[in-house]
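2024-03-11 09:14:02 INFO worker-7 job=invfold-0412 stage=load source=structure_tokens
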């Protein structure tokens, strides 16, 4: 887990305690089994991005606060320079960089995702909303439900994010932009 990701559980616990919410209530209010929530908060399990949104909502804050410790500041436009997004390693072989972390009240989350086929594939996830993936480099196998799609650089897919889905690089490294609608 990289340094940014290591601080996320700590921030969640700190905010939860400041708001005087018990871990049991936090888990229940967020629809997360208590044991799983405790593992998230103790840094024993990686927290899926969809769960980060749920937790941030329950804490009455923005995901940016959980990722960076700072409030999003921009409300008309937020520029993210090359290689300057908030980077978090989510799972082995799956890293993302938040491209709009500094924009207040986001209704969607654009992320630059880097994959490596030599690392284990992350388990499928499901979350509310819709998702758009646009491959910028390499080849990516995207599984939505039980259907697999092989996308090359320049290809894209739009899908119902409530279906279990996952992405994996094919033969090396790959990158894609994902836009997740909350």
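2024-03-11 09:14:09 INFO worker-7 stage=emit residues=182
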């Amino acid at each position: 887990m990289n340094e940014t990701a290591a601080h996320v559980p700590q921030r969640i616990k700190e905010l939860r305690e400041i708001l005087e919410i018990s871990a049991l209530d936090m888990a229940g209010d967020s629809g997360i089994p208590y044991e799983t929530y405790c593992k998230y908060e103790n840094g024993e399990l990686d927290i899926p991005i969809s769960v980060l949104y749920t937790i941030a909502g329950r804490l009455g804050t923005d995901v940016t606060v959980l990722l960076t410790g700072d409030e999003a500041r921009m409300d008309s436009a937020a520029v993210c320079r090359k290689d300057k997004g908030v980077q978090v390693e989510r799972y082995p072989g799956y890293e993302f960089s938040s491209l709009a972390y500094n924009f207040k009240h986001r209704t969607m989350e654009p992320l630059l995702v880097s994959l490596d086929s030599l690392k284990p594939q992350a388990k499928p996830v499901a979350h509310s909303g819709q998702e758009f993936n646009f491959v910028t480099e390499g080849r990516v196998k995207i599984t939505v439900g039980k259907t697999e799609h092989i996308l090359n650089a320049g290809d894209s897919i739009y899908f119902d994010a409530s279906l279990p889905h996952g992405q994996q690089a094919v033969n090396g490294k790959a990158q894609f932009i994902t836009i997740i609608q909350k």
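2024-03-11 09:14:09 INFO worker-7 stage=report msg="Residues 3-18 form the longest helix (16 residues)."
2024-03-11 09:14:10 INFO worker-7 job finished
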